[in-house]
Amino acid sequence: MPLQICILETDVLRPELVDQFESYGRMFEQLFAQQPIAAEFKLYNVLEGHYPADSEKYDAYLVTGSKADSFGSEPWIATLKTYLLERYNRGDKLLGVCFGHQILALLLGGKAERAEQGWGVGIHQYRLAHKPAWMSPDLEELTLLISHQDQVTKLPENATLLASSEFCPIASYCIGDQVLCFQGHPEFVHDYSRALLDMRQQHIGEPVYTKGVASLQHDHQGHTVAEWMMRFVAQGRAGLNG
Question: Residue 196's closest CA among 2, 102, 29, 65?
Answer without folding.
Answer: 65
